[in-house]
Amino acid sequence: MDLGVRALDAFTTSRCGQRLGLFAGSGVGKSTLLSMLARGAECDVAVISLVGERGREVREFIEDDLGPEGLARSVLVIATSDSPPLMRREAALSAMTIAEYFRDQGKSVLLLMDSVTRFCMALREIGLSAGEPPATRGYPPSVFAELPRLLERAGPGYPDQGMITALFTVLVEGDDQNEPVADAVRGILDGHIILDRKIGEQGRYPAIDVLRSLSRAVPGCNSSEENALTQRARSAMATYQRMADMIRLGAYKSGTDREVDEAIALMPRLNQFLFQGRNERSTRAEAFEQLAQIMQTIPQTTPLNAA
């Protein structure tokens, strides 16, 4: 499935009917990335649920981020942060029901939900008011029992039906990727996309941390050549990240390590590849073609133990 974002199409390739999690702190670019997906993803209908969002941001998302192009094929279900917890819970459940309606008509549906964390906060308020005992970080046990009932409803329908490809955002508290809600959602979904605040501070948007993001459908979606290509690119980025401090301090001398030299040569072009404007759309084929051109500038290295 073409998502319209180069970094996602190349490194976290998704298939129709897959469920992904978008993990990020506040102000890292979740809403902008969601609007890019709503406008550029290959689908018939986009169902967008904004649960517990600020009213000002809702209007900005509709008018500026989504725009007429995104609204033309979207259904929005919104419950702002001042709504009662029952309304915030129902906003998520209603959006899932609407997505199932279009799926039963044979359509390819993209479900975008922002955010599962605020859905869980609404469940926490409901559970505590009903007398449930608080457990992990104040969340009662019913919250973690309700999560799979919501998330598992997305996915492929029967053979004569369409599919729901879902992307659920998780607002991680304090940028802690191991907090209870994030940990529970990660174990249910078919992959995760990490937005890193440090990458955003460097001016590269969408601020996707490719090395920490994962799609479990990649081996079945891509050819062996495409998987080898992304593996080489990941290896180069991991090498550069490992040596970044020494490179900035000038402690690394060119020619000491061939892999590090290649990573230094590739990183500017890889960063340019991962950067994408909010109104720019890319296809999966274009993403792999551009990535192949970048990686061909450096010949593939031969392992030292190949002899």
Notes on the protein architecture:
By secondary structure, the protein is α/β, with parallel strands linked by helices. It has helices at 6-11, 30-40, 55-71, 85-104, 116-129, 141-151, 180-188, 197-201, 218-221, 224-249, 258-274, 284-295; strands spanning 19-24, 45-53, 74-80, 108-114, 155-156, 163-171, 191-194, 214-215. Strands 1, 2, 3, 4, 5, 6, 7 and 8 form an eight-stranded mixed beta sheet that branches. Helix 3 links the parallel strand 2 (45-53) and strand 3 (74-80). Helix 4 crosses helix 5 (116-129) and helix 10 packs across helix 11. The two termini are 40 Å apart. Residues 301-307 have low confidence and may be disordered.
| Average residue pLDDT | 92
The helix content, as a percent range, equals 40-55%
Q: Give the ordered list of helices and strands.
A: HEHEHEHEHHEEHEHEHHHH
β-sheet strand percentage:
5-15%
Q: How many distinct helices?
A: 12
Structural class: alpha/beta
How many β-strand stretches? 8
Shape, please?
Answer: globular
CA gyration radius, whole angstroms: 21 Å
Q: Low-confidence spans: pLDDT under 50, at least 5 residues?
A: 301-307
Q: How is the main sheet built?
A: 8 strands, mixed
Task: Tell me the distance between the termini.
Answer: 40 Å
